[in-house]
Amino acid sequence: MREIVTALEDVIVDCASLEFQQKIEKLIDDPNGRNFWVTNLKGKFSVPWEEFCSLLYKALVLPLPKDPLTKVLPANATLTDLQAAGLNQIRQYAKLGAEQAQKAAAEIKRRELGNFTAAYRTFGDTDADAMADDVRTMYCLKAILADNDEEIVTADEFGKLLGWVGPLELPNIANGFLDRIVDLLSEQWFHGAIPTTHTENLLRLQAPGTYLVRFSNSQKGCYCISKVSKDKVIKHIVIPYQVKKGFQLEKTWYSNLSDLLSANKEKYFLVTPCPGSKYSWMFESDVAQLGGYAVQ
User: CA dist 152 to 17, 48, 104, 296, Å?
Assistant: First the structure.
């Protein structure tokens, strides 16, 4: 009887494992990305950022950068210290005592109620000039993949990201997955995954010729150029992306978005990148934290 029960339990486990793999296959098209998730995150569809990052860097065969925003704040931390700290640092600081909890709550509330970017609420007043390159790379990945207050990475978002900047090369190579993310986020015209309504609100008061590039909300694995036309009408142009082929506009393929934009700037009247990218703080130390994509 015990052998029968054991056999049934094994069947149940196998069925659950197969069901999990099938669901992940629907969420993550990239072969290496899918295998990474199934192998390292069995049975999970979401995972804390710290766990995901550690496992991914291991799979990439890269040393995990030392995140300065994981440093424990002292009990006598000043207001300036708190404003410069990351969200997780503040949460840990709150556990030191009643006084610290009160100060931490005030700082978190200040960020929530203020007209600040999501990046500032999470990373604090980080100095881009003092940021090490490997840390900047890690922050870029986090900003695009775990852009939520809970700092959670989901299989769905990981799959979408690989559809935009894949493939995932394992182990890491020069100009590979991480480098493509950094290059993309460093561009003034790139604004990430923002809704069409936010895009149009950003462009509505801008001059003709102002444009931005974002991930398409409606078409899988595509980008979108949103621009203000000469007659002050906001228009959207979908840019398909395919691994090994690149980016397509009309019938022409380009190896990168910069080449596509340069080759078509006159035809499509692409003059000035729209200000307010939520990623600019990682590359420009003098970028004001006020503005960007604020939470009302």
Answer: 22, 5, 21, 22
DSSP symbol at 94:
G
What is the CB neighbour count within 10 angstroms for residue 59? 18
Cα-trace Rg, the chain:
22
**How many DSSP H helices and E strands does the chain contain?**
12, 8
- Has residue 201 got a pLDDT over 60? yes
This prediction's pTM? 0.83
Residue 278 to residues 78, 120, 281, 286, Cα–Cα distance (Å): 27, 9, 7, 14
- Which helix (H) or strand (E) segment is 201 a member of? helix 196-203
Residues above pLDDT 70, as percent of the chain:
86
Handedness of CA 43, 46, 50, 56 (dihedral sign): positive
Token pair 């950068």 is found at 65
Characterize 166-205 residue by residue with b for buried, 16 or more Cβ atoms within 10 angstroms of its Cβ, and e for exposed.
bbbbbebeeebbbbbbbbbbbbbbbbbebeeeebeebbee
Sign, CA torsion 29/177/191/127:
positive
Return the pLDDT at 162: 98
Q: What structural domains and CATH numbers belong to the chain?
A: 2-63+132-185 (1.10.238.10), 68-120 (no CATH), 196-275 (3.30.505.10)
Instruction: Output the six-digit token pair for 159.
Output: 């799959």
pLDDT at 294 over 70: no
12 contact partners, CB below 8 Å, separation of at least 6: none
pLDDT of residue 257: 98
What's the pLDDT score for residue 289?
42
Higher pLDDT, 72 or 129: 72
User: Could you tell me whether strands 152-154 and 222-228 are parallel, antiparallel, or unpaired per DSSP bridges?
Assistant: unpaired
Give pLDDT, residue 111: 85
Q: Check residue 288 and give its pLDDT.
A: 44
